[in-house]
Amino acid sequence: MPFRQGVLSYAHCAVVSGSAPQTIDDAALAKLKENRIRPDACGNGVPMTSGWIAGRHVFDLDFTHDSNSFVGVMLASLRTDTVGVPPALKRAYRAMAEDELRGGAQSDRALSRADRMEAKERAEQRAMQEIGEGRWRKIAERPVLWDLEGKVVLSAVEGEAAFNQLKGVLAETFDCHIERQAAGRRAVAVAQILHCARELRDAQLDAFVTPPAAIATDAEGSPRRIGEHPEPAWAAGDPLDFFGNVFLLWLWWKCDCAEGLVEVGALGSETCEVALVAERHVDLDCAWGVTGAVSLRGDAPTKSPEAARALLSGKMPRRIGLTVAANGQVWRCTLQGDRFSVSGLALPKPIEPPESLRELIEERLESTLLFDRTIGALYQTFLRDRLGGEWKAMRASMSGWIRERAAGRVMSAPISIGR
């Protein structure tokens, strides 16, 4: 539903192999219908089932061109049903069955092994009956936007379980295989385009400040040595995910020292200027695992003294609120750097009221994909700087900016972007 209306949250996935359809035609719609959700498959020992729904609501199984096929884009939803009676109720059902066999709750008659087995079976039968009646069923809907030409799938599948469900259903339906592109995987893809694979392989997380003086400890509480280059715990899944955190710091620096203007060249044949404002909130965490985390909220939290002290203490941004303007459109969102996931994305309102619901959805899909390409272009521009020969001087400038902010010497006028 969110791709059709409201604010959006999504993770960026790339189609890496398979035979994707060129258009969502009748054959593709038939495949969606064939792999639709089958709620009856959940239960009887099967705790979960996933499948497609058309996407207007969780019971919508009417796959049509008007609902699911747009110009170069498939729009549908993945529905996942999970059933499970709460353990406390299972124990209660069994205890009640034992009381019945005992002759009442006040009876102290000992139950035989056969009685206990019968009580267990009664409890399980009651649980299965309630599941069959539709109780204890949890339904999750995750809208899916598939840009066929761009080989991009956007969906709220940040968690591993949700991603694996979407990956499996897409593979079964269209024989297409996707990978979730957090900051590390996306950096690998961009480095190949920039011919900087070796530079990426040799890269380490930059230390923009002196390592914290506090004593660091490991998971067991024993002292551990703080290295010259931080190794953040949040990048344990992919060691290259730290590029996303440096990217957020680079955007923050651009907002403070370059009037929030970044020229990118990956949105088309011509360069494009992107305007940025860091606002509303910023979450930071210590890259060395020493000084802890902090979350700041307000109109301009990145300009606060608390933010300056956090950067100087070795913290790196994890999530940041942004207003992004490019190609005549303005978006507001929260970007998590290491996971490269977007939440709370507010799309611009149409200048003129659309003539139909389909036209409104088409404008939203086009705006969503343009935003995703804009963020990707910003990341590519950052990586060109980070993996290029001028990075050492740029890093020194960013380190100086952090020190000057902490000393209260950086004064930047707020940037105004039309809303």
Characterise the protein shown here.
This protein has 419 residues and is of the alpha+beta class. The chain folds into three domains: 122 residues, no CATH class; 46 residues; 209 residues, no CATH class. The chain contains eleven helices and 15 strands. Strands 1, 2, 3, 4, 5, 6, 7, 10, 11, 12, 13, 14 and 15 form a 13-stranded antiparallel beta sheet that branches. Strands 8-9 form a two-stranded antiparallel ribbon. Strand 5 and strand 6 form a beta hairpin. Helix 6 packs across helix 10 and helix 9 packs across helix 11. It is globular and about 80 Å long. The relative contact order is 0.13. The C terminus is likely disordered.
Give a brief rundown of this model.
α9 packs across α11. By secondary structure, the protein is an alpha+beta fold.
